[in-house]
Amino acid sequence: GNDVRWLFADQLGPHFLDGDDQRVLLVESRRVFARRRFHRQKAHLVLSAMRHRAAELGERCTFRQADRYRDVFDHRPRAVRGPLTVSHPTTFAARDFVQSLDRVQMLPARGYATEMDEFARWAAGRRGHQLRMEDFYRGTRRRLDLLMDGDEPLGGRWNYDAENREPPPKPKARPELTDPDQRSVLGVPGPWWPDEDEIDEQVRADLDRWEADGDVTFVGRDGPRQFPATRTEALTALRHFLDHRLRAFGRYEDAMMSGDPWMAHSLLSATINLGLLDPVEVVHAAESAYRDRPDQYSLAAVEGFVRQVIGWREYMWQLYWWFGPEYRHLNELRATKPLPKWFVELDADAVQARCLSDVLGDLRDHGWVHHIPRLMVLGNYALQRGWRPDQLTDWFHRSFVDGYDWVMLTNVVGMSQYADGGRMVTKPYAGGGAYINRMSDYCGQCPYSPTVRVGEQACPFAAGYWWFVHRHRDRFAGNHRMRQAIRGLDRLRDLEALVEQEEHRGSRGP
Ligand code: FAD
Ligand code: SF4
Asked: Where is composition skewed (Basic and acidic residues) in this entry (predicted)?
């Protein structure tokens, strides 16, 4: 048609347009960066991706750099005075804004595997039961005919999680590292990295200037751009992952290693979230890689990856809309402490605890850490200390290159902080030092000891775990998955000293 397609900054791939000649409106709003204190590398990535897209579209694109979105719509540029169409945006606020505008038609969401009303029908049909990711995921596998063998899952099993929970390989079992930049300790090549160009140079100069003008401030360190900003880079990164790294995915998915933040993860979240890759194309490509060369991959690795992209990611997206805007304010555990400064500032040097310091340092340097550091180190620490879930949600959103409102709410409020009282998970993701010790190589390099609860050597995660269970003992008394923890609490002789110790830890970094 003649409609001009308005693209948000997370709708940058070809699947958001209807044809090769469709005209486009792109708006860069500076106010977005003034309102929130983003990680420097996140601001860079988003601006770089948008400007690359505008440059690529050339004459077809009306690109406006404005203070606020609204400025553009109050005085529409001549080229976009006619009817505009836009794919369903990814936040409540953006959706409401779109609906408030004249001559703008909102289309169904693109870049997801399931229509929202289809999910709503599925969820409504399960009233009275807990919604389960696993059920949703199996339905999606069937519908997309993905890793299927007729009606049955390929290989006869839907779920390989049990094989994907190994601790990190022990030092002596690790392959020789010839070039630490090239080879991950898991014996596969490291991730693919993009090269910067003159657009990146301009972005860097603009961000420096905005900062010098005092308009915006950032957290984290600047550094070379590490995530794709164009469709071409996105496809290269995907290909590299599938050809070289997917085979090591899964097995060590839950493990953490100092000195290798990337392990065998895909690093594709920021790329998919920018709309540069369609998740459905990503999982089909993974399946093809496997079917073409089955000797190269274990099914557990491929299924594990597909489960993340078309299972977890899709489920989180759907639940954002299904739970509605009020979900953001839930705080069932009444966690009221503000986030301390060292955490907000990503001040890894203020922290002695090896695991936390290492993870904060990686986040400061890259704007990214993988799922388990997010859940079992950062989120776990906040949960144990009773930090405000709304502040934590905002912090995750700002500090991660892949952070967007829709992906934050369910991951932080629901999965990580149990602030929804258990609508998403059956028990809180609280874990002690023993868990971190089993799943990482951090504890050997730490001044604390993972099993010590009280005293100089007390591990803040070990003590924090019991402090958390103690504070919420009444609430969890009826939860059979917490019964063992509560029984354990009754056996602790040093509980009083432990509570006193943790209450006085205060706002210092552990
Ligand atoms: P891989 O391990 O390679 O997984 C493949 C893909 O699966 C990811 O690229 C991602 O698109 C998808 N995926 C897997 N799990 C999830 C999930 N729970 N939610 C959404 N997508 C998922 N993911 C974000 O994209 N943005 C966020 O801001 C974000 N914040 C998180 C905060 C917390 C507290 C937790 C527990 C998880 C969060 N996640 C977030 C989910 C997950 O940790 C990241 O998607 C993943 O670590 C990104 O790295 P990767 O691309 O290498 O992932
Ligand atoms: Fe982290 Fe505790 Fe292990 Fe130290 S001992 S690395 S604080 S879990």
From this structure: 160-182
